[in-house]
Amino acid sequence: MNAPFGLKADTLALPQPYLLFLGDTVERGFAKTALGLRDWAPEKCVGELTLAGAAVTTGLPQLTPVEAYAQGARALVIGVANAGGVIPQSWRASLVEALEAGLDVVAGMHTRLSDIPELRETAALLGRRLIDIRVPPAQIPVATGRKRTGKRLLTVGTDCALGKKYTALALARAFAQRGVASDFRATGQTGIMIAGGGMPMDAVVSDFEAGAAEMLSPDAAPEHWDVIEGQGSLAHPAYAAVSLGLLHGSQPDVFVVCHEPGRTEMLGTAGYQVATIEEIVDLTLALGRRTNPNIRCGGLSFNTSALDEAEAAEVMWRESKRLGLPVADPVRGGPAFDALVDSCLA
């Protein structure tokens, strides 16, 4: 793929452009792959395909696989990252239809495309490709904890699906615009599709999580920054393990806490309240010091998409004053985001 904003793309080549498949998704947070591709690689997206009952849209034209192929699409991308990464039976006829229309199928799910008989058989018959992104490399080593050269920034979160990828991409772009040598390091399926390479951290066996993070961000020049996409949350009852392994292996010098004002319940886990910003700052400092004693918080990234401009500005100003840290929405940008970048690079 092309590598926007100075990002590194050296391991992955996908058929493009894409038809984004949203299935019957009703939870916007689960559609983060499609939304991320729309926002960060719009030139690679020709339209979307949804099923009956879907309540989420990218805003792109609704196309059938045949129509998408006629408009240049060469792959259908499953744009959903649902709980467990499953491909339900209700989606499979549409995926077969895409193969029959001439499209390869790309997925970042835990369920392997080739493990579904009707997809495997149709792809083999028609000479189409089934491409799974969520497959880690072989022979990942156990982490050493050795301090590596170069500088690192990690995005962390009070919950899942609230802006860690967007924040890392925006910071990597801002660093590059300032002439700072940097690379975006993708750790999830959407980031990998955007950047063209990375490490699917949540598909790595737990004992090798930190080692995978060390592989992802190797020794670099002293002034070079790796901006590492975070995963999950240290406070999440289901996904904290991948967050901790990534934190230890990344050894970040700086972390940015990502948060969505107004979210009260953790995504996909009924009954668990979203962690507070202070809790995540304290946890990240306490656990991160194990592999980098000098770790510090560079500031906060807020997802204010549910607020109007005046409400967003007021919330970010208030929280910045309360916490004594810069707070910005990387999508809105502006002086607040400039201040966050300054703090990270300080």
From TrEMBL:
Domain (D-glutamate N-acetyltransferase-like N-terminal): residue spans on this chain? 57-136
Residue ranges occupied by any D-glutamate N-acetyltransferase-like C-terminal domain in the UniProt entry: 142-335
Q: Which domain of life is it from?
A: Bacteria
- Pfam families to which the protein is assigned, alphabetical: DUF1611, DUF1611_N
Q: Which SUPFAM superfamilies match?
A: P-loop containing nucleoside triphosphate hydrolases
InterPro entries for this protein: DgcN-like, DgcN-like_C, DgcN-like_N, P-loop_NTPase
Q: Which PANTHER family match?
A: DUF1611 DOMAIN-CONTAINING PROTEIN, GLL3100 PROTEIN
Give the protein name, as stated in the record: DUF1611 domain-containing protein
Species this protein is from: Sphingomonas psychrotolerans
